[in-house]
What we know:
By secondary structure, the protein is of the alpha+beta class. The protein has 17 helices and 13 strands. Strands 1, 2, 3, 4, 5, 6 and 7 form a seven-stranded mixed beta sheet that branches. A four-stranded antiparallel beta sheet has the order 11-12-8-13. Strands 9-10 form a two-stranded antiparallel ribbon.
Amino acid sequence: MKQLIECVPNFSEGQYPLVIKAITDEIEKTEGVRLLDVDPGRATNRTVVTFVGTPDAVIEAAFQAIKKAGEIIDMSRHHGEHPRFGGTDVCPLIPVSNISMEETVVYARKLAERVGKELGIPVYCYENAAFTPERRNLAHCRSGEYEGLMKKLEDPKWKPDFGPALFNARTGAIAIGARDFLVAYNINLNTTSTRRANAVAFDLREKGRPVREGNPVTGKIKKDPNGNEIWAPGALKACKAIGWFIEEYGIAQVSINLTNISITPVHEAFEAACQKAAERGMRVSGSELVGLIPKKAMIDAGQYFLRKQQRSVGISEEEIIRIAVKSLGLDDLKPFNPKEKIIEYVLGDPSEKKLIGLTAGAFTNETASESPAPGGGSVSAYIAALGVALGTMVANLSSHKPGWDEQWEVFSQWAEKGQKLKDELLFLVDEDTRAFNKIMDAFGLPKGNDEEKAQRARAIQEATKYAIEIPFRTMESAFKAFEIIRAMVGIGNPNSVTDAGVGALCIRSAVIGAYLNVKVNGAGFKDKVFLNDVMLRAEELVVQARALEAEIIQLVEQKISK
């Protein structure tokens, strides 16, 4: 499986689009990488670039971008709100797929060595790529910023990990590291005061603030018996934060780096910021994401706010994300487009044709065309998805039924189960067609010499096995929906009992339809042990599906008659 690394270099230029484009052009011309996001900030005079690719390609693209930045960014003329000490200020590598952090560290150090040796830029390795514990912290590596870099490089203890210990006024220095996924997240405040924004930042950040004697702002910092400063930690773990004023927007922000969103997710940071701002007489007006965010973080946020409202979380992914965007105020300063800001959406191949992306009419027309796919397997998965969608609809309607408020969470749980099954079945709509195409591709392989014949035979058997497994998976997933539909007939909104009944009819048809595909696809399969086991389980599912359908329809008839 392909290894993927994400790279998020920060360049000290956010005001001249042509300069930024010259740098990103170097990335885009590198084969094996994909540019995901370019996020310039005028007030910070900084651009965050995100790209992803195979490790060696990412290293090459990063090197070429750093090289170009060194040629066209002059740090001696740079001014901006964000801490920085180089033209390419930081360049972290993040493991994305099929690669460990340890392997990513090797690539980060490989890049750092090349930058130091070939470009003559002082390089400090940070986070997981650091050679010493104190250099793990980016703020420590960047202390003194660009203005203090000349003096810093004269100190032996600040000898760079790679490159010369010489001040280069044009390029400055660079921090290269390997880290977990970091979310750069800014909280918007209804104030123009940097000092008050900083106060909220200190309330939030894990490091907190120093404990002072007397006056909490100007008092002398307390020390322990060993002479070390005493600090009071902030409210959030895995959180770094500072306050600043953004002239472009005319507001102060709390600029947050969430270094581990499994410890402190975005919605918790937002809620804590709202609380701390209110305690200081301010209000959070919204927030801003810099760069990309994983889809799970947005789903978690949307579900958090829905539960807070005692609303069902068993709704579509798109609707949950819309709730997250509105609740976090991510569209406060400018429009927020999930397709451009959520990493999974950006990575998705827009050129890939998906059946589930078609309208209902277009899907029907595609099925009716002379093409053999989509066929019965895809249609079986689709009607199963419709069946479970009806059961999920009843659960959501029941969770909002007047007078049933105390039961919202029970119905929300049923709806959430339904959404997961629906998404699985929609995936299988396209996967069944892909399984068919795999068989066609295998039969299209050359069959000249003996080796080619053997390879073709193996490919046909592998593709056939997959074409058996996919409709059987449809049978299993569809069958699970009976539990939801039966529950909704029993305890759901009585006005929607017939909708649940139609869902049962769809599920039964889907199970039998997928069974027919399992049976026909297994006709030429040679592994009879595997095939017999699958067929035995498939036949049992058909029998049980017929019985459950009859039972549910009988219950529906009884409810209607009452």
